[in-house]
Amino acid sequence: MFTGIVQGIATIENVTEAPGLSTYAIRLPEDKVDGVSIGASVAINGTCLTVTRQEGSTLFFDAMQETLRLTTLGDLHTGAPVNFERAARIGDEIGGHLLSGHVHTTARIVEILRPENNVTIWFEVPEAWTRYIFPKGYIAINGASLTIGEVRDNRFNVHLIPETLRATTFGDVSEGDRVNIEIDSQTQTIVDTLARLGYDRPAPTL
């Protein structure tokens, strides 16, 4: 499990592609790899990956074809920055909301507004997933726990303060970029339960 509080920005050092599998070498800040072991879980842009090897502060992860299909990991290239969060431990403070690291879908950045001292980003999601997106609700975008602002059809926005822009990759995004989306599990459970009772349309097919 993860908390949605991004612990820093890591860098893609290398991507090795093989049929149905990509291996990522990702360099974390040196002070963030203490106690990492093979088999540990780390969220990379919100996607839960397993450490397969370690060389100093560089961790290696394998991503299978299904992971590449459902996430933006296949878009990553050498030198790209990514958000990371190591798995939460019992007793850790939950500063965001509980996440599984299982990406539901991707969204595209359609507009970036920069009023003084903050940034508003508009995202567009596949129509079927809007059933889980509500103003003031939780959502995880590239592994960051954020509060939804406005919702218009299949678009929604989030408002980012300077600290979020500093601590994550959101300070360097552009219109047209794709991001990973994990829907809030409690919201999904409530909406799907209502759907089974006949109060909503069926859940999306993955």
From TrEMBL:
Superkingdom of the organism of origin: Bacteria
The UniProt record lists the keyword Metal-binding: no
Lumazine-binding domain sequence ranges: 1-97, 98-194
Lumazine-binding repeat windows: 1-97, 98-194
Keywords annotated in UniProt: Repeat
Entries under InterPro entries matching the protein: ATP_synth_asu-like_sf, Lumazine-bd, Lumazine-bd_dom, Riboflavin_synthase-like_b-brl
Enzyme class, UniProt record, top EC level: transferase
Presence of the UniProt keyword Hydrolase in the record: no
CDD domains: Riboflavin_synthase_like
EC assignment: 2.5.1.9
Family matches, as NCBIfam families: PRK09289.1 (NF006767), PRK13020.1 (NF009566), ribE (TIGR00187)
Protein name (database record): Riboflavin synthase
